[in-house]
Amino acid sequence: MHSVALALYDGAMLFEAAAAVEVFGIDRSDLAEPWYDFRVCGPSRGRVGDWLRVDTPHSLDAVVDADTVVVSSCDVEIGPPPGDAVDAVRAAHERGARIVSLCTGAFVLAEAGILDGRRATTHWMHAALLATRYPRVRVDPDVLYIDEGTVLTSAGKGAGLDLCLHVVRKDHGAAVANALARRLVVPPHRAGGQAQYVTAPVPDQAGQYGLADVLQWAQAHLHEPLTVRDLARRAGMSTRNLARHFHRALGVTPLHWLHAQRVHRAQELLETTDAGVEQIAARTGMGTAATLRRHFTRAVGVSPDTYRRTFRAPG
Question: Could you tell me which residue ranges the HTH araC/xylS-type domain spans (predicted)?
Fold first, then answer.
């Protein structure tokens, strides 16, 4: 049997740990024989979330000889992940184990040096911190998960379950993974990436660089065919000077920001109205449905129709 070890540590998050237990820890031999030899490893009476303590049957030493090690998420705001977990995961990787991190579990892998030079992802809210804290990691904040062969990382929360199902698909085939997804009442594979779940950024530094007025004005006139020259005229700057201010305040070009605002407005309209794609294209200044679909799909990772089916507010 293929052995899977769930690596817990004090402060590990409950949701991702539960997802791994649900997928790998319950006997599914009616779907595939054999299933997995699953073990939970961690410190005695370690905290999982803020609600409970767990008596794990195995210490973190038992992680080292597993075929696959699943690393649960951690609280990345309080500092580096626990050293004993980092050492155990590093030893398992050096021995040749497949390492699977869920959500912010990527920080454990990064601390262990496993992600150096590799593409990796994590929860979109913490992707910038991962990139800053571990500059040798090639962080991709837009995808649901990344499979680099023996090292796999997922985005936040529900994406951890997506990655667990992907591992089952690799090990046992699509039919088994699809059957398991039906039992869990989740899609076997979700379209798009994290971009469809990211909230619109708030330009905190806009006022400092004299952009607050032009940003508010542009957002109120997104239905018009605005250009960068229009933004510069409103701000009383040259287009070159406007570009410098945008880069300093927001880290993007004026055109990139303008496209992003049009897409965010389209997301709001898709979620809250019954307007057709052609109407939404007009109300966001994109002109035609084809232009909207092209820019929306490029930015969000799914088509407007798929996005609406996923996020449409009831009633």
Answer: 212-310
